[in-house]
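Action item from last meeting closed. Structure (636 res):
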């Protein structure tokens, strides 16, 4: 393209100074001159080591490259798994620094410290800093896989503990006390039960007043969000801006647990992503004792840019804990999160790179648009698709426009790694780690923006699994609210009055609306001729006024669902929008299930089974095998 059209690529007949690694690969006959020149140009263009390009695009093995480097530089090859390093050096240098730099202080040999590296270029780049820290240093070679395996072997207890506790306790839910929660729930239940028995009319009136206020405020906020986002659909701000000259390395973390049926589909979908393979780092994150997923992964030949990461057993088993552990092994400056059933748009990562390159530095997170690839499987999937269409295409972008806190969506999330590490990563104990992280980002002054790029998922189409999934979300909302409201004044100070109000309405309001929904349902007794407790004390005009407010709220919500369906390109689903009142009644069971679990197993992750309602059409065609480009045409 125009950005590099004036760059001349050396040819085989040109006088070219090959690197020692390149010359050794030529001597061995591993590469021809033209391939080496192309690889060198790609490495320079993408600002990555030549070894990375050779692995990702020319499919050379780590062993081939390590052997060639050792010969070219007359260096030893050392396997730190078979010959473990000095643990004192590891503790002093730091496991995370080793994994980030690919440099492992191995052992002292005389007056020098032997440093294992996966790239000689990386060693040379850090040589002065190494010498300043360790004294005289000597080079030795190892492979990235051997280095990572050695670190897991030596430091897994430390890395596992960090994954669970790296977030400061003041920001984490890990100190949640179930016994205290039980006492609160028992006390509240006792008080409300006694109040209902002694003053049923007063309590009914109070509940009715609270529900009415919540419905009116929530509907008004949704309407404001719809209007705020009307002129600009989500994520269009940077679509026309120029691509960055150099694309960033993106790490995709994909947590998997007992995913036997979806793994092959996932790998095909990730392979369909249009992004330079030398800049792509896909981590398939699985639990160490999950033999089901491990067998499914082992049955597939993974490319060099895709690797499994096994999370050791610990004190709990949650998605955010797995993400924290895996991020230690990540290579990218941008961290993305996908779920097992996700089917992202092929150009999504280029959209991410484009958006971050043109965004201000306070934009720490990008949220993609979520949709479903099985919207017409049954009634439940139709309603779920309508809900997501209104949430991700209308309401959440509107919240962002209004300057409110944005609860993140759990998948198709992309973060600046530096910010994510500064915040302490995810709360390993929170079962809606996404919503919590959205609040923490806002409290630290960072913003989330939305992309128009779509990721399709599998809509939950069975009622009890839907209730279990929703109960986890609502339980997480309750935990997130409790954590951030430990010090309401600090939350007010961090967010300001407007966003503080938004947090109250979004988290507490959502929980109360579902918990008190039966109060609203009770008004349907009146048209059936069944007396309502409030009829004796509340004037008919007030009751009819409340009924009118509820009807108006329902019509506004109906309009939002229709707008969402149209923006999603699924206008026919709008015919099902009136049935969402019945659909959301399932959340009443979910909220009570979640609230009960707060007193019993607050950190329990009620897993959603994937691959149940997945049409064959969601499997993309295989991507042709060819060296990936960064979107720039190689000059001739």
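Sequence:
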């Amino acid at each position: 393209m125009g950005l590099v059209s004036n760059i001349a690529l050396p040819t085989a007949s040109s006088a070219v100074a090959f690197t020692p690694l390149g010359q050794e690969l030529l001597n061995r006959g591993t590469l021809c001159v033209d391939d080496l020149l192309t690889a060198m140009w790609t490495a320079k263009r993408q600002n990555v080591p030549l070894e990375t390009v050779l692995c990702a695009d020319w499919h050379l093995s780590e062993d081939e490259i390590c052997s060639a480097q050792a010969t070219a530089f007359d260096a030893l090859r050392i396997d730190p798994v078979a010959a473990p390093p000095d643990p004192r050096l590891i503790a002093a240098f730091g496991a995370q620094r080793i994994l980030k730099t690919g440099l492992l202080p191995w052992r002292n040999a005389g007056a020098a410290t032997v440093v294992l590296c996966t790239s000689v270029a990386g060693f040379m780049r850090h040589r002065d800093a190494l010498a300043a820290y360790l004294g005289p240093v000597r080079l030795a070679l190892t492979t990235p896989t051997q280095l990572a395996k050695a670190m897991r072997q030596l430091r897994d207890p430390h890395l596992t503990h960090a994954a669970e506790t790296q977030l400061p306790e003041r920001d984490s839910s890990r100190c949640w006390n179930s016994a205290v929660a039980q006492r609160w729930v028992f006390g509240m239940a006792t008080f409300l039960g006694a109040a209902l028995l002694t003053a049923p009319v007063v309590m009914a009136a109070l509940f009715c007043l609270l529900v009415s206020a919540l419905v009116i405020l929530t509907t008004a906020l949704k309407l404001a969000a719809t209007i705020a986002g009307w002129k600009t659909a989500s994520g269009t701000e940077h679509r026309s801006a120029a691509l960055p000259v150099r694309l960033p390395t993106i790490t995709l973390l994909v947590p998997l647990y007992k995913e036997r049926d979806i793994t092959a589909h996932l790998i095909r979908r990730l392979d369909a992503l249009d992004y330079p393979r030398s800049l792509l780092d896909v981590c398939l994150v699985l639990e160490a004792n999950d033999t089901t997923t491990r067998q499914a992964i082992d049955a597939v030949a993974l490319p060099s840019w895709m690797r499994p990461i096994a999370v050791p057993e610990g004190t709990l088993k949650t998605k955010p804990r797995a993400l924290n552990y895996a991020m230690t092994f990540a290579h990218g400056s941008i961290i993305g999160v996908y779920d097992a059933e996700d089917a992202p748009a092929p150009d999504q990562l280029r959209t991410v790179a484009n958006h971050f390159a043109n965004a201000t530095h306070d934009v720490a997170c990008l949220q993609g648009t979520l949709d479903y690839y099985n919207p017409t499987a049954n009634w439940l999937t139709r309603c779920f698709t309508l809900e997501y269409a209104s949430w991700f295409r209308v309401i959440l972008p509107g919240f962002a426009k209004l300057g409110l806190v944005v609860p993140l969506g759990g998948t198709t999330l992309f973060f600046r790694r530096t910010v994510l590490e500064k915040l302490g990563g995810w709360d390993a104990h929170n079962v809606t780690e996404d919503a919590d992280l959205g609040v923490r980002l806002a409290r630290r002054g960072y913003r989330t923006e939305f992309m128009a790029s779509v990721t399709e998922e599998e809509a939950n189409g069975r009622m009890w699994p839907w209730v279990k999934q929703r109960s986890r979300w609502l339980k997480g909302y309750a935990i997130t609210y409790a954590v951030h409201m430990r010090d309401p004044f600090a939350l007010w100070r961090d967010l300001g009055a407007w966003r503080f109000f938004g947090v109250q309405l979004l988290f507490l309001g959502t929980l109360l609306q579902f918990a008190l929904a039966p109060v609203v349902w009770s008004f349907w007794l009146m048209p059936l001729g069944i007396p309502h407790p409030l009829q004796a004390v509340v004037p008919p005009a007030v009751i009819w006024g409340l009924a009118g407010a509820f009807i108006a709220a329902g019509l506004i919500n109906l309009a939002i669902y229709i707008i969402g369906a149209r923006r999603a390109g699924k206008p026919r689903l709008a015919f099902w929008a009136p049935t969402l009142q019945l659909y959301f009644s399932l959340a009443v069971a979910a909220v009570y299930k979640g609230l009960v679990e707060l007193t019993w197993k607050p950190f329990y992750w009620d897993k959603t089974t994937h691959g149940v309602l997945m049409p064959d059409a969601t499997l993309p065609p295989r991507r042709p095998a060819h060296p990936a480009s960064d979107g720039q045409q190689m000059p001739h």
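Note appended to the action item: Residues 1-15, 234-238, 617-621, 624-629 have pLDDT under 50 and may be disordered.
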